[in-house]
Amino acid sequence: MIETILLTTARILTFEGSRGLTNATGFYFARGDRLFLVTSRHVMFDEPSGHFPDRIEIELHTNPANNVESTGFSMLLYRDGKSMWRQGEDSAGEVDVAVLEIDRAALPSTASFKAFTPQHLLSQLDQVEVGSSLLVVGFPLGFHDTLNHMPVVRQAIIASSFGLRFQGKGYFLTDARTHRGTSGAPVVMRVNVPSPELGDLPWMLLGVHSARLDVGERDLEVDEALGLNCAWYADILMTLTDG
């Protein structure tokens, strides 16, 4: 039996025309009848690195009884010169989170996945203590179970005061070993006594992994990397999926 948390997450491949660009991570978020793919905004568009894909492709399971069976599902990022995706923004500036609505009617009828919902978001941010155990579910460096098309999981802990905007930005810090390709991964915390509205997905969605955090003046020869990461608060999804 496959743990449901592994079915929330999809490997993303970005393309410019037919040219492959990068690997990343995304996850499903449902709001009513609408379904969205969530990832980091820099996966969709990143001017500093010159990353300008025009479509993405995700890998979908197509047989609930056999994880080996999958297919690629392509989605355009622009139509008539306008972006199909929405990016986050708050009083401090851009938020490194983006959502792209998925046309449910275009999905294979046997597509097998799990989606977070608004019920998986915390109503009170002070419910989580610093040092709490988390998981980051994703595709580091594109690595995954290539036979069963499953992500891998890294352990993490909350490394800053949860609910407090670190340095005024809309993210908190995690302490975890992460790599390129993990951008857009869900940062989740297990619910020991889940409520019925969580269904068969007993996890709280706390954040969206963005990037590793480093110190600008670090001596690359003497000092190790911090091993800290930015995770944007997941409640931004309520704004991005509204209307």
Provide an overview of this structure:
- With 243 residues, the chain is mainly β.
- It is 4% helix and 42% strand.
- It has two helices and 15 strands.
- The chain has a seven-stranded antiparallel beta sheet with strand order 5-4-1-2-3-9-8.
- The longest helix has 5 residues, at 236-240.
- The termini are far apart.
- The mean pLDDT is 90.
State the assembly state of the protein chains: single chain
CA gyration radius, whole angstroms:
17 Å
Number of strands: 15
Order of helices and strands: EEEHEEEEEEEEEEEEH
Q: Please, how many helices?
A: 2
Helix proportion range: under 10%
Describe the global form.
Answer: globular
* N→C terminal distance: 36 Å
Biggest sheet strand order reads 5-4-1-2-3-9-8
What proportion strand? Answer: 35-45%
Which regions have little confidence, pLDDT < 50, spanning 5+ residues? none
Helix and strand composition category: mainly beta
**What kind of sheet is the major sheet?**
7 strands, antiparallel
pLDDT averaged over residues: 90
Offer a concise description of the structure.
The protein has 243 residues and is mainly beta.
